[in-house]
Design brief:
Rossmann fold, about 40% helix, about 120 residues
Length: about 120
């Protein structure tokens, strides 16, 4: 699942992951992701940090605190324009699995996430 309030960015990443055989689902904001993760299984949530309403930290807190074990254990990679070591440490302490700065070339982004992405064609 890719979560970003910028529709174009989310859709572009979804297409790039799709070309590699992954079934990417785009969600365009914090509140929407909380509804989307309930009852579904995702291999990874690529989560924007700066979003209106619920930001990435709010969403991460909700995912890690979810009653459904499958949701609470879903790997979360924070994806942000912020190159801030304090925020990175905060996210990792809250249970984020990765902190990736936007602008990372897609092949490198994919390599950093491939340990969470299983066989192609799965969510």
């Amino acid at each position: 699942m890719i979560v970003d309030d910028t529709v174009d960015a989310c859709d572009m990443l979804g297409r790039l992951f799709g070309r590699l055989g992954h079934n990417a689902v785009c969600v365009y904001g914090g509140r929407e992701v909380l509804a989307a993760v309930r009852g579904l299984s995702f291999q990874l949530v690529l989560l924007d940090v700066m979003m209106p309403g619920l930001d990435g930290f709010d969403v991460l807190r909700a995912i890690r605190g979810a009653a459904e074990p499958g949701v609470a254990r879903t790997p979360v990679a924070m994806y942000t324009a912020l190159c801030d070591p304090v925020l990175r440490e905060r996210a990792l302490a809250m249970g984020a699995n990765e902190w990736i700065v936007k602008g990372t070339p897609f092949p490198l982004l994919h390599r950093r996430l491939e340990c969470f992405l299983g066989a192609s064609g799965h969510r």
